[in-house]
Structure formats: C-alpha cells, structure tokens
Design goal:
By secondary structure, the chain is α/β, with parallel strands linked by helices. It has two domains: 76 residues, GMP Synthetase, Chain A, domain 3; 255 residues, Rossmann fold. It contains eleven helices and 15 strands. An eight-stranded mixed sheet has the order 8-9-5-10-4-11-12-15, sandwiched between helices. A three-stranded mixed sheet has the order 1-2-3, with helices on one face. Helix 7 packs parallel to helix 8. The relative contact order is 0.15.
C-alpha cells in the first residue's frame, strides 16, 4: 500500500469540474486545506457563491473519489460558502451592509423580469445567502404583491433617516409602493424618479446582505443609466422572451450595461415553450432559440430557460412565487440553478477583471 500524498489528493480533485465555476476545485482556488493522516484524508473547500443545496452532493462526490485513491481508507470533504463583496465600478462607493448588487433588467416590459427577480432572490436565500430585493420599477412596482406584503404596509423609520426594509419569505424587501398609494400613478418626470430612486437605494437600512437584487424598470432611459452610474453593481441579468421584438430591446439592455462597464452575467429566456396542460403538446408560441442567439451574439450564457406556465403567474400573483410556493418542483429547481450560476458568474467576473494600471509620478 503506497503512502497517500497531498499531490495525489489534488490530482483526484482536478478530475472533477464544478458545474458553476466551470473549473476543478484546485484550479478555481477553492481548496483551503488538505490534511493527510496515514490512510485518512480531510479536505476543506470554500465556494465564493451561495450553494447550500448543492454543496452536500458535491462534497459526497469528491469524498467518494478520494476514497477510491490507493491507500485511502476514509475521507472527509467539508465545503463552506463564503461570499465576498464584488463590484464592477471601482469609482463608486459600496452600499452599506451590501456585498453584491445584482441588477435584473429587460429592454421591454411584459417579459417576466419582476417574476424572475423575485424568484432569483428567493432562490439565493434558499441557497443560504442573506438577500434583499429593491423594487426599482417606480412606475409599476410589483414586488410588494409578489412577496405577499399587504397593501398599505409602510416601512419603519430608523433614526429619522433610514427606511427599514420589510422582511417577507426570508428576504428583505423595499419598494416605492410602500411609500405611495397603490391607486395613485407616479406621474413624475425622469429626474424626479431618478432622485427618488437614489434616495431609496442610499437611505434603506439593509441588514448584512450577501446579495441585493434590483428589479430594474424596463427600457434603457435615464433611470437605468442613473442606477448604473450611481449604484455599485456587481453584475446584471437580462430577461427576454424568444420573440424577435423582445430580443431587439434586450440587445439595447446588454449594450447599455456594457457602456457603463457593468458585466452581463447572462440571459434568462422566459416563456420559451408552452406545454399544453391537457395533451402535453409543446409549442414555441414566441419563437425558438432567441435567448441562445442573444447569448451567442454577446458572448454570454443562457443562465435559465423557463416555460410559459400559468402556475408561475398564479403563484406570483398570490404573494408566494414559485421558489417559495413549490420549492421542490421542477420549475423551482431551474431558479435554483439560476441562483447558483449568478453567484458563480460574479466570482468569475471578478477573477477575469483586468488589473488597474499603477500610476507613478516622478520628478524626472
């Protein structure tokens, strides 16, 4: 029986690829410790994204692989998730108590952006992260309804300066809808909306959040640009349908984020296919492969593809989105995959970011 070495254990780990980081644990820098005591091996890994529902299965797979190594009688793999702070724009100060800001955007309305943002926030929370959601859709706020928060609910005021977000379904929620009458439309010009929104962003007393999901208003106007230039966003997610008109507007959203140097983490394709509840026939009502075309054109990934489902709509309208209403269902699992991909993409974007040049001044 040959003696077990750290190099041999690392060689085994290199054979397995983390499906979200697209790298093996060693290359991804996830290995924190490898302890070899005779024929017993202990490995500690650290993931930089929320993966509470994934890590136990991942640990078991790696444990079995190490135990298959010659000379190993037992192995233990411990995986922890430690989420660090990331932001794309170095010149913008971070938000107090918020590590990562994720903007969920679309070029046009009606593509399921708000539903995606709500389920993404809930999925991140299910993975063990501390999560908040900011409803930045001033003209059509909907997160209060989706999170089952009663009409007329108002946030508490802290120290006569801070809004205290309302907690629902394990997520901290803040929306302009909490400060206005639902039956009164916001008849405001762009600068007024931008100012109110920035006040909402900077004067909300968030808890210690790993992720703040911002449900952006549709389009690419001054509100979106103000947010992109004033809020330290770590990455954006573009929501679209396969329809050509929606893709045309989604392209504008991608271009907007690129112009302000915010990485696009990927594309979510909503209403990709409709499956008849009576006969099971699948039909692509809004076209086919649109999300893939957009992702290929801009060199990003399709993070999730979701069906046109009455259930998703009904659960969101009832104040309990799919991830909360049916957490073990097939559609909820798609949102969990989305959450892990988003978290991992933020880590990968940070790793791929070019180092800023050092500027030196001399008297020569």
């Amino acid at each position: 029986m040959s003696a077990v070495t750290r190099a041999a254990v690392e060689a085994v780990l290199r054979q397995y690829t983390d499906p979200y980081l697209n790298q093996d644990p060693v290359s991804a820098g996830c290995v924190r410790a490898i302890d070899v005591q005779g024929d017993q091996v202990s490995v500690q890994l650290e993931l930089g994204y929320a993966a509470g529902l994934f890590k136990s299965g991942w640990a078991q797979m790696l444990q079995m692989a190490i135990e298959g190594l010659d000379g190993v009688s037992s192995a233990k793999v411990d995986i922890q998730c430690l989420i660090a702070a990331h932001k794309a724009q170095a010149q913008i100060p971070g938000l107090a108590n918020v590590k990562n800001v994720v903007a969920v955007a679309s070029g046009k309305g009606g593509v399921g952006k708000s539903t995606t943002a709500a389920n993404l926030a809930l999925a991140l929370a299910r993975e063990g992260a501390r999560v908040g959601i900011l409803d930045a859709d001033i003209y059509g706020p909907s997160q209060g309804v989706m999170f089952g928060i009663a009409e007329g609910t108002r946030p508490k005021i802290k120290d006569q300066k801070w809004f205290v977000p309302i907690e629902s379904l394990g997520v901290e929620v803040m929306s302009m809808a909490f400060l206005t009458d639902e039956n009164t439309p916001m008849v405001w010009r762009g600068p007024m909306v931008s100012g109110a929104l920035l006040q909402l962003v900077t004067q909300t007393a968030w808890g210690d959040l790993d992720y703040l999901v911002i449900d952006m208003p549709p389009g690419t106007g001054d509100i979106q640009l103000t947010l992109a230039q004033k809020v330290p966003v770590a990455g954006s997610v573009i929501v679209t349908t396969p329809q050509d008109l929606a893709l045309l507007d989604a392209r504008k959203g991608v271009e907007m984020f690129r112009k302000v140097n915010i990485p696009v983490l990927g594309v979510v394709e909503n209403m990709a296919v409709h499956i008849c509840s009576n006969c099971g026939h699948a039909e692509h009502l809004f076209g086919e492969g649109g999300g893939e075309k957009l992702a290929t054109q801009y060199g990003v990934e399709v993070l999730a593809s979701l069906p046109l489902s009455m259930t998703i709509r009904e659960q969101a309208d009832s104040g309990k989105p799919t991830v909360a209403a049916e957490p073990d269902g097939q559609i909820a699992m798609v949102y969990q995959e989305l959450a892990r991909h988003v978290g991992a993409r933020i880590v990968l974007q940070e790793a791929a970011a070019p180092a800023m040049p050092t500027i030196t001044v001399s008297d020569d």
